[in-house]
Amino acid sequence: MEGTRRRSTKSIHDHKLVDHDESSAVIGPKASDALPLPLYITNALFFTVFFSVVYFLLTRWREKIRNSTPLHLLTLSEIAAIFAFFTSFIYMLGFFGIDFVQSLILRPSPDVWAAHDDEEDEEDLLKEDACKVPCGQALDCTAPPPQKLTVDPIVVVPSPLKPKAIDEVPFPTTLTEEDEEIINSVVAGRTPSYSLESKLGDCKRAAAIRREALQRITSKSLSGLPLEGFDYESILGQCCEMPVGYVQIPVGIAGPLLLDGKEYSVPMATTEGCLVASTNRGCKAIHLCGGATSVLLRDAMTRAPVVRFGTAKRAAQLKLYLEDPANFEAVSTAFNKSSRFGRLQNIKCALAGKNLYMRFSCGTGDAMGMNMVSKGVQNVLDFVRNDFPDMDVIGISGNYCSDKKPAAVNWIEGRGKSVVCEAIIKGDVVRKVLKTNVNTLVELNMLKNLTGSAMAGALGGFNAHASNIVSAIYIATGQDPAQNVESSHCITMMEPLNGGEDLHVSVTMPSIEVGTVGGGTQLASQSACLNLLGVKGACRETPGANARLLATIVAGSVLAGELSLMSAIAAGQLVQSHMQYNRANKDVAKVSS
């Protein structure tokens, strides 16, 4: 084995390949003679192209990073620049001598080959390098014929990589013939995309086939959208139709939030830098001052159908009937039979000519409850039709509810859970943790959240950024993100205490719409976040307790977020903090100018 591992310098010496004069005679004309321009001009041209392209690409990448544009999306100019980069780079490799680079790669390290102390062997090795013999031939004990030995400043290397088209669609390699037939059928329009789950009986396979068909129809790649690692069975008939993948959103943890004597680590799914960090600072300030306290004022989901009569008098008669306490028991019996947890609380009616809007409010247990209350409303409509056969039901929802839209009725009457959360922040904490002072915070809150919002004609938006925290928690815990609209209704109040030494801060949120069962709460990731908060699933002992607790955690988190953001604005730290956590590569001076 030793003999096979030892490099034989003797054989190289014996063969005497060529010396410098002989090689010159054998080689003949130089390869550079074939160039259309003198060698020094060609070198200068390729060097200029190389460094210009490098500068252009670095500039473009910096702009993409600043603008949050994916780096893999290329323009035609960038594709041309990449091609020029590879071309000039390959030429430079040839100019500096690819043989030398290959010799460094293929030459064995000293610990593999036995050391040679003979000066004659060292001279032979030097002579070998001077002959410009490629490394593969240098390791060969058989000398090549002299007439085939050439030295060329440009070495043959693989051609540059062909730039990939921007929208080139990568087709999977695991498709079966049956899959191909189904994909072609979907592309041709013979098989509806929505029917793949029922036809195949395999939700993941249906998603993969639908995804591939979509890529072929649109000629757009979905390579950045994950497909693997998701349970498509769990969303069938519940959360999403015709899936082709899923979107990844990072989840951060703010806290611990000390609320009503208990600590909670709050999951927040967001792509906005600084949001979790800011909420976390607010949680710290609240924790250092003994925590926050919450009060649940109301718990009722609403649905308001619209019906029409021949006359306004007839519509008014139904209004009086529904609002008469003597009829409430009969109406509630009809309403409550649709669910074990749905319980009618009250009915508020509004008349517009001969059209009647009936706003039903009911408890829904641990569910958010939209479907539950809708079924109860339908039961009531069927019940009252016996006495009002001329009633024309226009819609099960007449927007007097009001769902997923800013509305004064939600701001005044409430919808879902109505919560107030408060805390007293010590002056030392305001100065040391929040980096501001009590009087500045109170003044800023009055001029920004109260007066500024009134000047803007805000409806339920008397706060700094309640929707930021609400949306992040909703996405993390499987709530309906669209209900962030009314759930973010919030008024933030700040008042000085103890002669201006301490700060009383509160948030009042009349329409937090959350649930811990149903919808997206049953998905694995969202269920894990609910479990982190201790509100996963239904509460068996006290139905509705988990959903109510989740609502108070949302309000407490909003309190922390309001406290921290207002402090950052008061201290003039808003821009700097966002540059640090959200756009760290940007120059603050340039942004401000």
Automatic annotation (TrEMBL):
Coiled coil: none annotated. Keywords: Endoplasmic reticulum, Glycoprotein, Isoprene biosynthesis, Membrane, Mitochondrion, NADP, Oxidoreductase, Plastid, Transmembrane, Transmembrane helix. It catalyses: (R)-mevalonate + 2 NADP(+) + CoA = (3S)-3-hydroxy-3-methylglutaryl-CoA + 2 NADPH + 2 H(+). It holds the Pfam family HMG-CoA_red. GO terms for cellular component: endoplasmic reticulum membrane; mitochondrial membrane; peroxisomal membrane; plastid membrane. It is found in: Endoplasmic reticulum membrane; Mitochondrion membrane; Plastid membrane. It comes from the Eukaryota. The chain crosses the membrane at residues 39-58, 79-98. It is an enzyme of class 1 (oxidoreductase). It is a multi-pass membrane protein. Belongs to the HMG-CoA reductase family. This is 3-hydroxy-3-methylglutaryl coenzyme A reductase. It comes from Populus tomentosa (Chinese white poplar).
